[in-house]
Amino acid sequence: MEHRWGMAIDLDRCTGCEACVVACHAENNLPVSTPELAAQGRATHWIRIDRYYEGEFPDVKVKYMPVLCQHCDDAPCEPVCPVYATYHNAEGLNVQVYNRCVGTFYCANNCPYTVRYFNWFAPEWAEPLPLQHNPDVAVRPAGVMEKCTFCIQRIKRTKQNAAQEGRRPADGEIQPACVQSCPAEAMVFGDLNDPESKVSRLAQNGRATRLLEELGTKPKVFYLQKAK
Amino acid sequence: MAATPDLLPYHRIREDLFRPLSRVSRPYMLATLIAFIVGAAGLVAWSFQLRRGMGVTGLQRPAFWGVYIVDFVFWIGISHAGTLISAILRLTDAAWRKPVTRAAEAITVFALMIGGMFPIIHLGRAWLFYWLLPYPNSRLIWPNFRSPLLWDLTAIATYVTGSVIYLYLPLIPDMAQLAQHNTPWRRRLYRALSLGWTGSDREWHALERAMKLMACIILAVAVSVHTVVAWDFAMSVAPMWHSTIFGPYFVTGAIFSGIAALLLAMSIIRKVLHLEAYFTKHTFNRLAKLLLLMCLLWFYFTLAENLTVWYGNEPKEMAVFGARTRGHYAPYFWTMMFLNFVVPFVLLGVRRLRTIANATIASVSVLIGMWLERFVIVVPTLTNPRLPSASSFYAPTWIEVAITAATFAAMAMLYMIFAKLFPIIAVWEFKPHPQEDD
Questions:
Q1: Which of A116, A162, B24, B272 stands the most exposed, by the fewest C-beta atoms within 10 Å?
Q2: What is the pLDDT of residues B216-252, one digit of tens each?
Q3: Domains within chain B, CATH numbers bracketed
């Protein structure tokens, strides 16, 4: 495996501003939900901010946790797909092939992080939002599952550009939309195969934990937080 | 002990059982019409769902499976009525099986046809369902046999094939009889379907051997089918789905609801076709005892499943357990316990109460209860995922209700049409010496 892409998110830095959520919507052509659809559980956010409250009012602490596809090395969603619409690619990414998906929902049921989203209807955007669609990302039809791709289109573009210059992508050169937009610089993306990369070093940090690690899914998103 | 119809002369039995085939009454037409309308309404609902998208259902993140999957498990469960019971009775050579087997085998075939529709109805892109089939294709990709859904497809396809053969084999001698004196189109139909049966010794022996063999095969297939259905859930990492006893638990539930469906069908046939002499108190009594046995077995499994979770007190599982027993889905759970255990246990456990009418009431109770059981298993697990931020509620919309109602109508319609084309009781089984020509 040449690359093994991963992410580190510093929860002690995250302010819960949701810039990453907005950036992801713009980058990945996610439909904009309405309050009604959101109340029905039909909103699509490849990255979401989970809120955890500690203490009793008025002495409450809120902790924000951006949750996106964890790109597990042992992803529970993968073996259950009957048509190989979701599988592991050569760079450790858990990828979703929209054209193969028939919509059994099984992957989403088996995802302990509930980060998979379904196209309940054909996606719609109010004018003039369709004008800002990202041409590098497919618009998904009704009836297929989708989820965070670690902005695979950006990974590919950066790798191609680097290859033309006869080099490997530098550490930090690839930035998914969420990472790029984080004002607190709480998110870091990079190659876990490179022991010198920033994400590798953060993954070794004493504050690093992984979400629902006990399930043995081997997620590639590392959350950094002070031990209580 | 001989069942009553064995004491009737054979020609009388033949008349009794062939008569319903040639008479179409007004209530029959009316019932078929109602079933057809309800079925058509379901088709309209489905076409609406196909055009608009799965958003017309009550499904949502994270409750990605709902009433359709409940219906799927329910109907596959009902299919265990027939084949399994008739195979067991045939292999043990129980004499009281004679009036029961065909009515049961027909339920199996139709319930499977209906149940097998639901995974397709439930697909986000239902028109691409054939992508799950292993065939050389332009996508240059084989289906993923690591997925329990593929095991499911394989198991159910095998089961349908086996059940159709198992229903068909004992029909052959009856159809040969029917081909003798009949209206022209029926003569053609039965002659074609009876495959030139002449009733020779050799043919009887071959049929006997084939039926014995199929009975053995179908038993194994039936058990494996519902085990695989259970594994659709148990293979996942979801709390209260990931359970080792789900295989046998589901098989037990399937046989439980299957016997209930058979009892209900029998009591309707008995009344409508005036076959009181065939479906006697003894027949009902024996099947009712089987239902009682399955009721106790089901209760044992339900207790084992829930008690261990409660005692283990693991937070993620307790969230599901709480939603089932105290939370949003508690009414479903406790109604299920009442209908699946209290009602049949009292009505069938007390000998004085074990009448035909009460066995029918208990069956209806069990059928509703077992539908609820699948709901209680499928939904609360999904609405209480491991990360609490995604927790939600699920309730079906009219689309799901209409499609569910349509399948019950389809079952009734298929069964009624079957009963007009073929004798619902195997006539030749009552022949004193089947090998002798008459």
A1: B24
A2: 999 999 999 999 999 999 999 999 999 999 999 999 9
A3: 4-132+144-430 (1.20.1630.10)
Determine the pLDDT at residue B435.
56
Q: How crowded is residue B14: how many other Cβ atoms within 10 Å of its Cβ?
A: 19
- A63, A80, A81: which to substitute to probe chain B, counting the most B Cβ within 10 Å? A80
Could you tell me the CA-to-CA distances from A34 to A41, A117, A154, B181, B336 in Å, in that order?
A: 11, 16, 28, 68, 37
- Shortest distance between the Cα of B96 and any Cα of chain A, in A, equals 43
Query: How many whole angstroms separate alpha carbon A125 and alpha carbon B51?
Result: 19
- Each domain of chain A, given as residue ranges in start order, spans 5-224
Let me know: does A215 contact A2? Beta carbons within 8 Å.
Answer: no
Residues A93-128 pLDDT 10s: 999 999 999 999 999 999 999 999 999 999 989 889
Distance CA(B353)–CA(B244), nearest Å, equals 37
- CATH number attached to the domain at A5-224: 3.30.70.20
Residue (of A85, A87, A91, A61) closest to A74 by Cα position: A87
pLDDT recorded at residue B436: 54
Judge whether B423 is closer than 8 Å to chain A, CB to CB. Answer: no
Q: Predicted confidence band at B210 (pLDDT cuts at 50, 70, 90)?
A: very high
Report yes or no: B300 at the A interface, CB cutoff 8 Å: no
For A124, other C-beta atoms within 10 Å of its C-beta total 10
Is residue B395 within 8 angstroms of chain A, CB to CB? Answer: no
Express each pLDDT in B335-346 by its tens digit. Answer: 999 999 999 999
Other C-beta atoms lying within 10 Å of the C-beta of residue B291: 27
Q: What is the reported pTM?
A: 0.94
Please state the length of chain B. Answer: 438
d(CA A156, CA A160): 6
Q: B390 pLDDT exceeds 90?
A: no
